């Protein structure tokens, strides 16, 4: 097991881009198990200490090029694995924001607006909701994903050295500029929404600011919550489910304690969804000492932790709705859990690495529909 100790005085890279541009992968000098390997950069120091794995073994597992066939242009635009290598800077910028991750945040705003009971199908409310979706999806989720890719560049150098940042397809200054523009844009929209809604307390602004801070400590040292599979994945789940829901509900109504508790409970399902993405990064996580759930417990146990978190959470919410005197909503939610379980056995539990995208595309629509069912139940 290897660990990474990063001392970052600024977001500067110099020598690593030369290494990447030469052969698209991180070269680590050959070291024995007992001798630490270190690579020094301008204003930055990266130290890799080998404990259980020889550095040669780690390097040999790194792919040298993009997937066979040149990758998919569609995957590139969505920001998912199997992407074609691109030279157009705007397409690369879009790839870094991972548009495939926007829909859950956009849907969370829809659920919050529905749960408020105060959303009306008029031009003003629709415009407010669309602006809130832009804040939650393209701006703040784009900020989060770009920031995460920036701080994951050493892991990506092992797992996917052909990605935009480790390959040098986009420069350091361009990445940092994108991070700041997306962050400031999202927070600015949040403040505008508070003014538009006539809030005495800028609740949407506070939620955007808090979510942005959570995103930073999730990806960046010294806290880097993602180093711990439990804290990091729950923080990710809360960011994808609770925060956009709260923003949508606060925009059109009032946040209540029961909604806060219920959405945090739903974030445990988000924790399970986050584990799905950890399987494809096991080698890099091991090499750099990140204790993701698959690394800490092994792939077989991690698979069941993942599906258990997703399924048990939804069953618990259905039980809550039944106890609250809303049996039809509870039955609808249970009906939406069934196909998710089917797809778990059909895809994810067979091979979480091979079928991760197919599983998420098949099962997650039923989970997000369940979120809307719950939101509608809470609005009545």
TrEMBL record:
Organism whose genome encodes this protein: Theobroma cacao (Cacao)
Record InterPro entries: Chl_synth, ChlG, Prenyltransferase_related, UbiA_prenyltransferase, UbiA_sf
Enzyme Commission number(s) from the entry: 2.5.1.62
Main localization of the protein described in the UniProt heading: plastid
Record's keyword annotation contains Transit peptide: yes
The UniProt record lists the keyword Glycosyltransferase: no
Annotated localization: Plastid, Chloroplast membrane
Keyword annotations of the record: Chlorophyll biosynthesis, Chloroplast, Membrane, Plastid, Transferase, Transit peptide, Transmembrane, Transmembrane helix
Classification lineage: Eukaryota, Viridiplantae, Streptophyta, Embryophyta, Tracheophyta
GO cellular component, one term: chloroplast membrane
Catalytic activity: phytyl diphosphate + chlorophyllide a + H(+) = chlorophyll a + diphosphate
Enzyme superclass (EC): transferase
GO terms classed as biological process: chlorophyll biosynthetic process
Protein name per Swiss-Prot or TrEMBL: Chlorophyll synthase, chloroplastic
Pfam families: UbiA (PF01040)
Membrane topology: Multi-pass membrane protein
């Amino acid at each position: 097991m290897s660990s990474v100790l990063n001392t970052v005085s600024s977001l500067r890279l110099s020598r690593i881009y030369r290494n990447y541009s030469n052969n698209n992968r991180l070269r680590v000098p050959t070291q024995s198990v007992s001798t630490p390997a270190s690579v020094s950069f301008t204003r930055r120091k990266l130290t890799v200490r080998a404990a259980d794995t020889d550095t040669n073994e780690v390097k040999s597992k790194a792919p040298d090029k993009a997937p066979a066939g040149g990758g998919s242009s569609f995957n590139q635009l969505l920001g998912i694995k199997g992407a074609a290598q691109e030279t157009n800077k705007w397409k690369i910028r879009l790839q870094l924001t991972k548009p495939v991750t926007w829909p859950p945040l956009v849907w969370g705003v829809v659920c919050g607006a529905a749960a408020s009971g105060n959303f009306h199908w008029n031009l003003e409310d629709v415009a407010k909701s669309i602006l809130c979706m832009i804040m939650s999806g393209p701006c703040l989720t784009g900020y989060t994903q770009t920031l995460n890719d920036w701080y994951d560049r050493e892991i990506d150098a092992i797992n996917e050295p052909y990605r935009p940042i480790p390959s040098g397809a986009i420069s350091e200054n361009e990445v940092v500029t994108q991070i700041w523009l997306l962050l400031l844009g999202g927070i600015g929209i949040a403040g505008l929404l508070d003014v538009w809604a006539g809030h005495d307390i800028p609740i949407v602004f506070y939620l955007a600011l808090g979510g942005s801070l959570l995103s930073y400590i999730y990806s960046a040292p010294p806290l880097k919550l993602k180093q711990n599979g439990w804290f990091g994945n729950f923080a990710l789940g809360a960011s994808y489910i609770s925060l956009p829901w709260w923003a949508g509900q606060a925009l059109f109504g009032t946040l209540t304690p029961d909604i806060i508790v219920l959405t945090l409970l739903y974030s445990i399902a988000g924790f399970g969804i986050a584990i799905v993405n950890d399987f494809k990064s096991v080698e890099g996580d091991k090499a750099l000492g990140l204790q993701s759930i698959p690394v800490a417990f092994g792939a077989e146990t991690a698979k069941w932790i993942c599906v258990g978190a997703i399924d048990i959470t939804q069953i618990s919410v259905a039980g809550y709705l039944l106890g609250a005197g809303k049996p039809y909503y509870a039955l609808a939610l249970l009906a939406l859990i069934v196909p998710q379980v089917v797809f778990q056995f059909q895809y994810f539990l067979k091979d979480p690495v091979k079928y991760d995208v197919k599983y998420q595309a098949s099962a997650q629509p039923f989970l997000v529909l369940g979120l809307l069912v719950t939101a509608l139940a809470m609005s009545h």
